[in-house]
Amino acid sequence: MIRRAAAVVAAAVVLGACGTVRTPGQALHSWSAQSGFPSTAATLHGDAASTARVLRGAHPTAKLRHLVCAVLLVDAEAANASLPTPIDQVTHLLSRAYGSLGAAAHLCYTASNASARRAAVAELQRGVAQLAEGSAAVAALSD
């Protein structure tokens, strides 16, 4: 009995030394700051705008198209590497956005005709809308 009580006291001391208990919102706020999420989201928005401009151009060169698509893909993959967030719902929203942006980059890379470029732009728009939804969730749920 004494050993059990000593074990409980020791466990309480160890847990007490772990720091303060944070709310999910506080943990999300910390994740956002540590992962650089605001900068990541801004970079992805810029990449998406550049990619859309090239895809909507009259006759984009393959080199330019490949360049902007590759940049978008690398940045979407880097953003995805910062997941998960402390809140499952936010992780799901951001994962979906990063997946759509990655898919748009792949479609963009092979979009050698106007129809394929339109499909890539549509996927790009879906990814940007999902990123906006995820960003709003981060802002709303962070303490």
Query: What is the quaternary state of this protein?
Result: single chain
Order of helices and strands: HHHHHH
> What's the domain count?
1
Indicate the mean pLDDT. 89
Strand residue content: under 5%
Structural class: mainly alpha
CATH architecture: Up-down Bundle
Helix content: over 70%
Shape: elongated
**How many β-strands, per DSSP?**
0
CATH class: Mainly Alpha
Q: Looking at CATH, which topology would you report? A: Four Helix Bundle (Hemerythrin (Met), subunit A)
**Largest sheet: number of strands, sense, barrel closure:** none
Radius of gyration: 21 Å
Describe it.
With 143 residues, the protein is an all-alpha fold. The chain has one domain: Four Helix Bundle (Hemerythrin (Met), subunit A), CATH 1.20.120. 83% of the residues lie in helices and 0% in strands. The protein has six helices and no strands.
